[in-house]
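Comment thread on ticket #2218

A.B. wrote:
> Attaching the input chain for the structure job we discussed in standup.
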Amino acid sequence: MFLSTFFEKLGQYVLLMSKVFTKPQKWSVFFRQFVQEINKLGVGSIGIVILISFFIGAVIVVQIKLNIDNPIMPRWTVGYVSREIILLEFSSSIMFLILAGKVGSNIASEIGTIRITEQIDALEIMGVNSANYLILPKTLALMVFTPVLVTFSIFAGVVGGFVVAGIGHIMPVADLEFGFQSFFKPFYVWYAIIKSIFFAYIVATVASYYGYYARGGSLDVGKASTNSVVMSSILILASDLVITQLMMG
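C.D. wrote:
> Ran it. Output below, let me know if you need it in another format.
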């Protein structure tokens, strides 16, 4: 029963994506929506990304300092380990688990509301590819703006670490700075960005899928939104493992 349901949903998803990734019927309409979605999904997420990254960066520094506080271990190791955690996992994987709740639920509820109010049926009657019209601008907008979000996340996380080290007197700021700069590999930044683009695709398309196939009333839109967040989170964690093996193995 589980396998049959899984393959049915997978088939629906693949068929939906085949309709989504086609040439837009009107490029002017597409670009207008694309810009609107960048503002709504991307720019609208900068605030929460900076806020969460700042505090998580501070917490990482405190936790690392407490756990490796050893006279044998150099103090700059705290900065080095904190930087690696922020670059390799937090600014991409953990951040998109959070954005799956904010952006994913927003997309699923918006498209789900359009579905249950029969606006999608109206678009289909008018000969409009509703999947392409509704989903493609959201997906591309989130994927294109993702590097900006990752950059803000990394910067805010590092600033949070410096602030807690200075104000909280956790450790000398000079030692933390030396650790942040030590053995830096630029590839890790590209790794975080590339991985995040895949996560952005997952969040946007999975949320769109659940919203597009929502049926019933407003309660069902809520269920579709919840299901999209859960499934996006599972797929992000699974793909994180695969991408890490491919890029870092």
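A.B. wrote:
> Thanks. Noting for the ticket: Residues 26-248 form one domain.
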